[in-house]
């Protein structure tokens, strides 16, 4: 985490932490303002799987992830409405017509964006086009 994530006083959160995890949302979702890291990780992991129907897959390019964040964050509440992760996908569809005789699995790096709702997914597609 960046240096700005350090707490200034015991029991308070940094500006960076408060932006990612607003107190009112934390109370609504977890019941308190300081859930454990494993509680937060499990919650967002479950959201990732739950949102699998509302995803956009884009090619991974150097620096593009920051650009995606810049374009989407002003329109959506980060983390609770959308998530982005780098992943590897099979290249099977790209290898049609090629004679691939080895048993190696060919992969391609991509960025996967998943959204809370189909409406947010559509908005993401518009903003990224």
Q: Which regions have little confidence, pLDDT < 50, spanning 5+ residues?
A: 1-10
Summarize the amount of helix as a percent range: 25-40%
Order of helices and strands: HHHEHEEH
Which structural class do the helices and strands define? alpha+beta
Strand percentage:
15-25%
Q: Quick one: how many beta strands? A: 3
Q: How many independent structural domains? A: 2
What overall geometry do the principal axes of the alpha carbons give? Answer: globular
How many helices? The count is: 5
For the largest beta-sheet, the strand count, sense and barrel status come to:
3 strands, antiparallel
Rg over CA atoms, rounded to whole Å, is 18 Å
For the termini, the CA-CA separation is 30 Å
Rounded mean pLDDT score: 79
Main-sheet strand order equals 1-3-2
